[in-house]
Amino acid sequence: MNFGSRLKYLRASKGLSQTELGVIFNKSANNISQYETGKREPDLETLKNMSNFFDVSADYLLCKTNTKKKSSNQSTNNENILDLDFDVLTDEEVDDTFTSYLKKQNRVMFFDPESDRSPAEKRAMLKELTKKEKERQEKIDKLNKLPDDLLEEALCYAEFRAQKKSKK
């Protein structure tokens, strides 16, 4: 995978045309097309703007990693949520962390952060969610160690399996 194919994937995942993406970055559709075909590379400022717009790291855009999220400051109160000890947080901090985490993970549709759940229940849910997130991150880290050709093959296979499952 290269920058162009990664950009095309991100653009398509947002449902944008080359023209629409060009308008967002003050570039022509032809510029976006040239980025996607590898005939041209964006300047540093455009790369930073793309990273922010797609909410991915520049390393992800440049295919240096397959982890989309920016590694710095993805958490509540400037700490990484995966490293928090939920047992030492106050009930108010648990409430704030719970709400913030669900919003960041787009899981509010599954859990109502304003529900009448007790802090103990929220604490237990956060522990379980972060445990699963750590397991997911470990899998991603293993995938990142694969050579690009094997990684693409694995991703294609995973997509095939997901499509097959959704048809059932």
Can I get a quick summary?
This protein has helices spanning 3-13, 18-24, 29-37, 44-54, 58-61, 91-104, 119-144, 148-167.
Note down, in words, how this protein is organized.
- By secondary structure, the chain is mainly α.
- Helix content is 61%, strand content 0%.
- The chain folds into two domains: 1-72, Orthogonal Bundle (434 Repressor (Amino-terminal Domain)); 73-168, no CATH class.
- The chain contains eight helices and no strands.
- The longest helix is centred in the C-terminal third of the chain and has 26 residues, at 119-144.
- The two termini are 31 Å apart.
- Residues 71-79 have low confidence and may be disordered.
Key structural traits:
168 residues, single chain, mainly alpha, 2 domains, 434 Repressor (Amino-terminal Domain)
User: Separation of termini?
Assistant: 31 Å
Shape call: globular
Number of helices: 8
Q: What is the total domain count?
A: 2
Secondary-structure blueprint of this entry?
Blueprint: H1 3-13, H2 18-24, H3 29-37, H4 44-54, H5 58-61, H6 91-104, H7 119-144, H8 148-167
